[in-house]
Amino acid sequence: MLILSFESSCDETSAAVCEFGSPAAADGTSTTAFVPRIRSNIIASQIETHRLYGGVVPEIASRAHCDAICGITEEALEVAGVGLGDIDAVAVTNTPGLVGALLVGVSFAKSLAYARGLPLVPVNHIRGHVAANYYDHPDLVPPYLALVASGGHTSLMHVHSYTDFETIGRTRDDAIGEAFDKVGRVMGLPYPGGAEMDRLASLGNPDAVKFPSAAVVGDNLDFSFSGLKTAVINHLHNCEQKNEEYRREDIAASFTKTVTSSVIKKLDMAVKLTGLRDIAIAGGVAANSHLRAALTAYCEQHGLRFCMPPLKLCGDNAAMIAAQGYHEYLAGVRADSSLNAIPND
Ligand code: KG4
Ligand code: ZN
User: What is the pLDDT of residues 23-80, one digit of tens each?
Assistant: First the structure.
């Protein structure tokens, strides 16, 4: 089946056309392998616009989504080589995210589904990030452990089934990507600083400065990135006050090392607690080369299977929404014209 999907929860407007095995193939009643395929995945990024303000401005984001959504939908259909008549279902992110931004995708998808008489499937953005893994790893089958690391969310999830997610650990304050971006900003990097922090960290000494762990002490699976972020910022201010030079590369490397070791500490606890042997990472920060390398090494060392999406599917995109939308569709999830945007899931 072909799913046309939409993502507009933050500062990327995206539309995709993705192809999935028949429901019979996916539930094992057929010998046909379940191999999802991206026919098109068009992403219009607003980063350049928001960069001027050092962060996403919600009203500007909503207006930019309105301007972009018709054009990228046409492009998604054209690149996929299909027309609206070939589409079997429409999937759309309806939670969580910026309410005005979400509303653009939700309203557009609702109108389109209504006009064409197509089933409409609402998708949770975080679940979508996790489902981005299915394109390269169609044999990633629940139950498994997912680490969601994005600009707005950081959580450890026990994925019981394709549509049953249990959050077993979360950040108590800042999200992991937010911490990367804020430290980057204090070092003068343009918004969002995550990718540039990654590059700088490769050139620095990870043992140059010792920062406090982001793993919350005790018998829990939670993180706190706010304390770590503040410690880095205080360190930078102290250096400036004492007129001491610091290398941005060393700060980025030391910060990144602290983040990765904190993540691995809680992941290790989660593995022991749940007994799960398959691990998947998802979200914008899943693109971080140091985190990818550290998790790969950890999983190899412990004989665990590790899945990560390709870099182009780590950030926000509509193909990931189609992947989760497919499973929600199979589970019978449908929305009607009363579907609304929900900012907090
Ligand atoms: O998942 P995403 O695209 O949007 C949200 O749903 O939040 O994540 C965006 C976040 C930003 O904070 C960005 O700086 C961060 O992902 N990011 C990275 C890297 N690439 C993107 N953080 C660290 N290293 C990277 N290579
Ligand atoms: Zn996201």
Answer: 555 555 554 556 899 999 999 999 999 999 999 999 999 999 999 999 999 999 999 9
Q: Which ligand is nearest to the CA of 174?
A: 1
Look up the pTM and report it.
Answer: 0.95
Q: How close are the terminal C-alpha atoms of the chain, in Å? A: 28
Sheet holding 305-307, edge to edge: 164-170, 154-161, 144-149, 278-282, 305-307
Contact 195 CB / ligand 1 (< 6 Å): yes
255 lines ligand 1 (CB under 6 A): no
User: Distance, CA 150 to ligand 2 centroid (Å)?
Assistant: 6
Residue 88 scores a pLDDT above 70: yes
Q: Is the CB of 97 under 6 A from ligand 1?
A: no
> Do 170 and 222 meet the contact criterion of CB atoms below 8 Å apart?
yes
Q: Where are the beta strands (DSSP E) in 178-297?
A: 278-282
Sequence-distant (≥ 6) Cβ neighbours of residue 98 within 8 angstroms: 9, 10, 56, 58, 61, 62, 343
Res 21: pLDDT: 85
- Mean pLDDT for 145-172 is 97
Angle at 149 between CA 144 and CA 154, to 5 degrees: 90
Cα of 96 to ligand 2 centre, how many Å? 9
- Within 10 Å of residue 112's Cβ, how many Cβ atoms? 18
Q: How far does the centroid of ligand 1 lie from the alpha carbon of residue 33, in Å?
A: 32
